[in-house]
Predict the structure.
Amino acid sequence: MIRFHLLGFPIVIHWFFWVNCALLGGALDAGSPEKLQALIGFLIVACASIVIHELGHALVMRHFGDRQVSILLYAFGGLARGNRWLSRQEDVFVSAAGPFTQLAAAVVMWWVLDAWKPGSPLVYYTLRSFQEISIFWALLNLLPIIPLDGGHISRALFGPMRQRASLTLSLACSVGMAVYAFQYFNTMSVIFFGMFAWNNYKELRGEPQVQWMAGR
């Protein structure tokens, strides 16, 4: 466990987060010093980007009056946890804050790289990776898939009387992304969306779900 405070929020990074990040970053194919170096860079920028994402959620939660917000990075993502009930409108703002904070960080990095050209190829690659990961993770989280941020937004917009509609949309998107990931990404990406689809299906049937985290 890594524990620290940032902007007044306690943050915990579980060891399982590093394992899954490494697998998503291609650890199984990191058979050369160059690939290992690239993997370490990926882990650093992925962690930084996801912390920024969760800080976006946490700051808006604090804005809405929650004074006991903490951040946990675990499994395939992160979780900003508070103790205040959110209205539907507040839930939309809190859920959207993470991806849009991440996109803002990517824009800032684009300005930095446009104004300053690092002399080291490794530094340039790392900063460029941060930009690309931030954009990718933010857009991924805006998909209307539960439990991603887009899924929270979808649930709030559908309202409590139409939760089956939001779950059905989430299930369809999860299956579609699993098929897409099978064609264009690695096995871990297929598992990632497959678990979403399975949890959505079980929730539609009113059955217990697998407890894991991704998104807010």
User: Anything to note?
Assistant: The chain has a mean pLDDT of 90. Residues 143-204 form one domain.
